[in-house]
Structures are given as C-alpha cells and as structure tokens.
Amino acid sequence: MLRYVSAAPERKDVWILLDIKRDNHPETIMDTLADLLRSTPSEHKPWNERIILGCWTTKYLSLAHRLFPAYPVSLISFSLAFARQFLKVPHIIFNMNMHALMGPGGAQFLADAREAGQQVFAWTVNREEFMRLCIRRGLDGVVTDEVELCQRTCDGGKDGPCRLPENGGDDDGDDGLTVLQRASVLVRAVLLYAVGSLFTAVYRVDLDHFIYGLYHDGNGKENK
C-alpha cells in the first residue's frame, strides 16, 4: 500500500490514517511500523506529511510520540469521557465515533477541542445527511467508506453547497435527518457513554505521568 500511494505523482496528496488496533503487541507493532516506514521511502512527499498514527490507548500514544516524533498522532475513541482527559495534551487529533459526537456532550466536547486548538474527526460517516451535519458542526475531517459521496457533499450536495457556517458551526440547519435517525443517534450515544465509562475505568490515565513521558526518556532525561 505504501508503495502504491507513494509511486505516482497524481497520488501525492493522498494521505493515510493508520488505525493501530489494541490487539497488537504495542512495542512489536510500533517497532515494525517504524522499520517499514524507514525502508519504504515516500517519493513525492515525506511520510510524516501523509500519515496520521491512530492510537486507542496511552501506551500506543506514548510509543508513537517516542518512535515517530515528527508524525501527527490521533486518539481514536468512542468515549467522550476518555478522550476529554487528553484535551490539554498538545498536538493530538481526536478521531471520535460519530454517534458519540452527535449525542449528549458532543457539542461541548467539540467546543472545548476548538478552544484547545485541537482537530476533531468523526468515524464512520457513510450517509450524506450525517456528512452534512459534520460539515455544519465544523469537524475537521471524517472517516468514510463512501469517498465519492463525501467529496460531492463537501463540494455541494443536491440542495446546494454545504459549507461551514460563518458562526463556526453548530448552527440549526436542516441536514435531512429523520426523527428515527435522531432517536437512533441518541440511543447509540447513551450506549457508548455506558461502554465508554467502563473503558475509561479499565484504561486509567495518569495524565501527569503521561505528559512527563512525552518529554523524557525511560531514564528521566529530557528528550531533545
């Protein structure tokens, strides 16, 4: 895949969001990825301008920072509570489950992320009405299986252009969501809140220790 993306000049603007699953052994998969990127040069643009490393837990975030200091890093999550802990950590992109963002607490999370200067993506957004809603709410990107539909929606859908409002998003525009769809989003968001609370309890974050580890090596020396 790296060779395919890198080889042709017409694909130089294609970028990759790597979803690094939690069922991999952290050190093994991250070391292997580092070796792979070193051994596969990007011909038209460096990999750190084309790849975002998607991590689910602090273990992977720490390894990504240590092994790939020049690469953008994304926290992938379905839990607003878990993600909220990282709002004060610099240079983290939040890649959040769409239903969590569209449910209770999602608008406040977006506002807090904007205030912190952090980008927010949503996954997985495959229907036009949800794409339009993401645009209206000012999200920075979406993960989708329907790339052509997403491109048409961003350029202007069947009802005309669907651009970010001048007020910065969160307007009350009609995105074509039915009552049933809105109810479904609410139910899923509540379920995700419950599961996310359990996830947050299992994968506890010592934020001070995590931030300290970003700037110091294993011997306590400050990273250059």
The coarse overall form would be globular
- Annotation field: number of helices: 10
Beta strands, count: 6
Range of helix content: 40-55%
Strand order of the largest sheet: 1-2-3-4-5-6
Q: Care to describe what's here?
A:
This protein has 224 residues and is an alpha/beta fold. The chain folds into 2 domains: 1-71, no CATH class; 74-224, no CATH class. The chain is built from 10 helices and 6 strands. It has helices at 2-7, 26-39, 58-67, 80-84, 98-102, 106-115, 128-136, 147-155, 179-202, 207-215; strands at 16-19, 51-55, 73-77, 92-97, 120-123, 141-142. It has a 6-stranded parallel β-sheet. Helix 7 (128-136) crosses helix 8. The two termini are 32 Å apart.
List keywords for this structure.
224 residues, alpha/beta, 10 helices, 6 strands, globular
Quick recap:
This protein has 224 residues and is of the alpha/beta class. The chain has helices spanning 2-7, 26-39, 58-67, 80-84, 98-102, 106-115, 128-136, 147-155, 179-202, 207-215; strands spanning 16-19, 51-55, 73-77, 92-97, 120-123, 141-142.
Give the topology, please.
Blueprint: H1 2-7, E1 16-19, H2 26-39, E2 51-55, H3 58-67, E3 73-77, H4 80-84, E4 92-97, H5 98-102, H6 106-115, E5 120-123, H7 128-136, E6 141-142, H8 147-155, H9 179-202, H10 207-215
Helix pairs in contact: 2-3, 7-8
GO molecular function, one term: phosphoric diester hydrolase activity
Protein name: Glycerophosphoryl diester phosphodiesterase
Pfam family, one: GDPD
